[in-house]
Each structure stands twice: as C-alpha cells, then as structure tokens.
TrEMBL record:
Its job: Required for rescue of stalled ribosomes mediated by trans-translation. Binds to transfer-messenger RNA (tmRNA), required for stable association of tmRNA with ribosomes. tmRNA and SmpB together mimic tRNA shape, replacing the anticodon stem-loop with SmpB. tmRNA is encoded by the ssrA gene; the 2 termini fold to resemble tRNA(Ala) and it encodes a 'tag peptide', a short internal open reading frame. During trans-translation Ala-aminoacylated tmRNA acts like a tRNA, entering the A-site of stalled ribosomes, displacing the stalled mRNA.
The protein's name in its UniProt record: SsrA-binding protein
Pfam families: SmpB
SUPFAM superfamilies: Small protein B (SmpB) (SSF74982)
Region ranges (Disordered): 134-158
Compartments in which it is found: Cytoplasm
InterPro entries assigned: SmpB, SsrA-bd_prot, SsrA-bd_prot_CS
The encoding gene: smpB
Broad class of the protein's primary localization: cytoplasm
PROSITE patterns reported in the protein's UniProt record: SSRP
NCBIfam families to which the protein is assigned, alphabetical: PRK05422.1, smpB
C-alpha cells in the first residue's frame, strides 16, 4: 500500500473493495471538485464504500461517493453524494468503457488522495467475487499469516 516516501496524502480507502472484487486493472484519475468539496477532503472526510464509476457519452463519472458538507460552508455548499466528473485520457476512457461492458466487470474507486495538491482517485476495473472465492482468499491470508508467525518463532528460537 502507501510507503513512507509516498507523496500521496490519502483521504479515504475502500478496504472492502479488495475483499469483494478481483482487481484486474488500476487507473489514476483526476476529479472535478467544487471549493467546499476540496476543503472537506483536506479535513480527511470522505467515504468510498458504495461508490462506483461509469462511462456516459465518452465521459467518466464517479457516483455515490460521499463527501460530507463542509461545516464552515455557506449557501454554496455542495451536495454530499453528487455525480463527479473523472479526468482521464481518451484512450483510457475507451479502454475502460469496452472492458466494463463485459459481463461481471465494474469500475470501483479504491482510494481517494491528494498528489501535489490535486485530488486524485484510484479506480479499478474489477470483477465481482463469488462467496466461495471470498472464503478461499481469507483462508489463504490466514495460512500466510500462520506461516510468517512460524518463521518468526523459528528465527527467535534458532
């Protein structure tokens, strides 16, 4: 995930996405935001839980992402779950559009962060996991943890 020397300031992560989906490809996209949305994000307030992206008439949109209203905002405060435009290259949009139309594929946000003062979102082309796939993944993670624990104990005793 994020390393110590990583210049990104992470605002929100979608932890459940890697559990519920098989991530096939990841893209970084800019976001078109209003002023109060940027201020709310800088305070570290956002939720990607129910968010998704879609392609509509050649434009990428991020929907259902919750950025709460800025508490010091006035009458020009933003709507918390409004539709936000994603900034991607034309080739990326075309590739995402063709892949997301395949059966079982969707576009989901993985993380929302600031990079060099600009708000970015990491979106993934993903395929939904079945329930048995989720159990298998959890079992593999648990086995890996147990193996690491055994290796550490062997080194300590060794």
């Amino acid at each position: 995930m994020a390393k110590k020397d990583d210049p990104r300031k992470i605002v929100a992560n979608n932890k459940k996405a890697r559990h519920d989906y098989v991530i096939e490809d990841v893209f970084e996209a800019g976001l078109v935001l209003s002023g109060t949305e940027v201020k709310a994000l800088r305070m570290g307030r956002a939720s990607l839980t129910d968010g998704y992206a879609n392609i509509d008439r050649g434009e990428a949109w991020l929907e259902n992402v919750h950025i709460p209203a800025y508490f010091q905002g006035t009458w020009n405060n933003h709507a918390p779950r409004r539709r936000r435009k994603l900034l991607l290259h034309r080739e990326e949009i075309l590739r995402l559009e063709s892949k997301s139309r395949e059966k079982g594929h969707t576009l989901i946000p993985l993380s929302l962060y600031f990079l060099d003062g600009r708000a970015k979102v990491e979106i993934a082309l993903a395929r939904g996991k079945k329930e048995y796939d989720k159990r298998q993944t959890l079992r593999e993670q648990q086995d890996m943890r147990e193996a690491q624990r055994a290796m550490r104990q062997k080194e300590m005793l060794g």
